[in-house]
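Hi P.,

Sorry for the delay on this. The queue was packed all week, but I finally got your sequence through. Input first:
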Amino acid sequence: MDNPAVPLTHDVFTKKYEKNTRYSGQGLELKIHMPCPFCAEPDFVNFKLLEMREKMIRPHECQACGRAMKLRYEGNPSQLLITMIQTKGAPPPDFLSHTFVQEREEKPS
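Then the structure:
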C-alpha cells in the first residue's frame, strides 16, 4: 500500500483503532471520537451518542487516507440492519474488504 497511514495487517489496524477511539462527556452528553474505519487515524468523525444516526447517514472523509463512508440504516428498532457504505477512495485493505459495501455516489452528467 502506498499510504503509510493505512495499517498493513488486521492486528496492527485493531490496536491502532482501539488506541484512537475516545469518549468524552457523560450521560446524555456522551461523545464518541471515532477513528477512520479504513486506516484507524483519529477523529474521523465525532458525535454525541444520541446523534449517531443523524450524523452517520452523511458521508465523512478521512484526511489521512482519502476514503469516505456513511452508514445505511434499514428496518425498525427491533430488527435494525446497519451497513457501512464506502462512498469514496481506494478499496479498503484486503483484511477489511468484507466489512464495507462499495457504493459510489453518481455525479450528474
